Amino acid sequence: MSRCRGTLIQESWDENTVDERSLHTLELDKLKQQMQAYAACALGRDALEQLAPLPSPEAAEAELQAVDECVRLLVRVGPPPFGGVTDVRADVRRAAIGGVLDGVRLAGVARFIAGGRRVRGWLEGAEGVPLQRVAETASRIFDARQTELEIRRVVDDDGHVLDNASDLLRRLRAERRAVEGEARQILERMIRTHARYLQDPVVVLRGDSLCLPVKVEYRHVIRGVVHDVSSSGATVFIEPEEVVRLGRRAQELKVQEEREIERILTEVSAVVGGVAEQLLENARALADLDRWFAKAGWAKAQGCERPELRRDGVWRLVRARHPLLARETAVPMDVTLGETYRMIIITGPNTGGKTVALKTIGLLTVLAMCGCFIPARAGSAVAWCDDVFVDIGDEQSIEQSLSTFSSHMRNIVRMLHRVTPDSLVLLDELGAGTDPTEGAALAVAILDYLKERGCRVVATTHYAELKAYAFREPLAINASVEFDVETLRPTYRLQVGIPGRSNALAIAERLGVPASVVERARSALHTNEVRVEDILTELEKVRREAEQARAAATAEREHAEVVRRHWEAERERLEAEAGRIREQAERQARELVERVCQEADRIIRELRAKRREGSAKDHELVALRQSLEALAPEQRLAARAAAAGVRRRTPDPAQVEKGALVRVLSLGQKGEVIERTADGELTVQFGSLRMKVGLADVEVLQPAPSASAPATAAGRGVSAAKDVRLEFDVRGETVDEAIARIDKYLDDAVVAGLRRVVIIHGKGTGALRDGVRRYLSGHPQVKSYAPAGPGEGGDGATVVTLNA
């Protein structure tokens, strides 16, 4: 069943009913060549050569689904490994009917089998991309590993038959090499003993015989068979009679060897023929995969999106562009067809882009029907058609006595006999090439006929009668390509709903035609024509103003959206930071409470023990009571301040600037001031943690640089130490590099009076961590070290306590 599904799309290429003339006119062949450049093997290129609209929307949807999966694979994991996959179908079919493959072709089959297995394994191992069509196709690839091993047993990668292919072949080759070696030894001995008779002291090969180049005057000295004579006649090439017997034996062995090789290749070819159907199925599956990935690669390079295929005859193209035009210069267009109107009449000046718009609609429709992504924004939709009819260009023929008008009419007549309600008809310069009055009347009649048949029509024209037709016909709408009268250049922008103007008089005036001539031409126009032109001019002006206002509003909205996203992200970041700080403070508070409780329990146990013993002395009870009172945060901070000889008073603000080293009294932790606000609030850095504290909650351990003493020797020592941080990061360094830097850092830390520092080395393989800790164990200034806590980096950092 999966095989039937897999071959449905491949077989359907030959069943398409879209007019071949239309495909040629829309230049689908050029897109085939672009896509073939992204194919990895000949199988995919051959499949893309047959690219054509599929026979049903279901087949096209299946193809689009497969290409969609391949696009996501390319974005997430890249292209699959198609190396070794070649087109071996002819060789496999030959083997299937009993033909014998030579070593080179057998080696190609082996590489094909291995390549298919690699592609299947790669697709089965792709993670993060849900696959359906691609997975089903990959599952069709048969693993003919035994056949591959059988081939590689007898031939190498270059197609040479190996000596070990059979015992007989090995013996024959060994014996032939021995015979040839013996013959060479005889010849080399004769070169040494008969050197004066030889033209050159070398052994030469003539045919399959080993010969000596003998001077012609000594030809009778060396007995043997003459195989050749030099062009000058001065040298004869003689196979000595001692070597003739050995040469004949070598030839007999060579013939036997060739027969054995033929037998081996016949056997292995039969093995390939036994799995011919499976290998041909592998070729079909790999061709499908390569075709899909080529389409995906082209779509990715062109910035294409998957179109929606609709069955209700509605097109909705958003920012669509012609795929054969340069992506940087192509002007995108928005088109809707089939909802409120079924016909679009495009008017405007020559070279303004009318034909490009026509081809863009037709080519994108054909691409979607071929199962390809289209160069348009996401959300674009294309209606499924039973046929696409195109009449574009001048196809006059002298040989067939056809004028421009006749060639157009022959093509249109063919269309009128074949169109259906599900057809798309594209007509360029409808009614041109004949009398304007008759041509316009004929064009209106053709449009009426197509309207009655219910098909969708896009037509370009210069006739004012067709503009009027679009105004009065509810199922038709005018459109135009914009033209800048100031620069006399088209902008190639398609404007649906506004009829175009020829701008002939404006262009003539801008090019320097005398004003009197232009005025005379303008006065020759009918009053109604002038009024229509004035209305169109006013409509164009209003439209441009509306577009400018809309563009400005869009820009403002986009800017507001950017600002909103920025502040939302900033709010989320601040909330996350506040949450992290809150969690850190709560954890530290829990640890503090736990330590206080443990200390209180210890003191209470000692008090009870002394009471029971009756041995409590007054000074001991006083000391225990003071210890218990010191457990209160305020008492603990006072005790610390008294022990340090620091009075509890607000420090001098001049000393607490950025870079000052302080102790936060409420936490009992050292930190570095990184910011001070005008109202005295400080931001203090504790390792990776930052906290805002009041000026009264800190004591200055080392003033900021601006508050340091004059540059005395001691002053310079303090100043040099002011930049020593509490953390030192050596991640990414070798052990030797890290130790050299840590040694200097520890010296600076001791000079700065730091008692506890953190060295960040990371986890990794553990080599840097172990080297650092071995070094710390022998450092004279290190009192102790231990792994950091969970909040400081865990085993990725080491807390070092320095000697006082």
Describe this structure in words.
This protein has a six-stranded mixed beta sheet with strand order 10-11-12-8-13-14, with helices on both faces. The relative contact order is 0.06. The model is unreliable at 1-15, 395-402, 527-531, 634-647 and 707-722 (pLDDT under 50). Helix content is 51%, strand content 15%. By secondary structure, it is an alpha/beta fold. Helix 10 (167-193) packs antiparallel against helix 11 (241-274). The longest helix is centred in the last third of the chain and has 87 residues, at 527-613.
Number of strands: 23
Fraction of residues in H or I helices: 40-55%
Radius of gyration: 46 Å
What is the overall shape? flat
Alpha carbon gap, first and last residue: 82 Å
Average pLDDT works out at 82
Strand-residue proportion:
15-25%
Q: Which regions contain 5 or more consecutive residues with pLDDT less than 50?
A: 1-15, 395-402, 527-531, 634-647, 707-722
- Treating each run of at least 4 consecutive H or I residues as one helix, how many helices? 24
Strand arrangement in the largest pleated sheet: 10-11-12-8-13-14
Largest sheet: 6 strands, mixed
The secondary-structure class comes to: alpha/beta
Keywords:
alpha/beta; about 800 residues; 23 strands; flat; disordered N terminus; 6-stranded mixed beta sheet
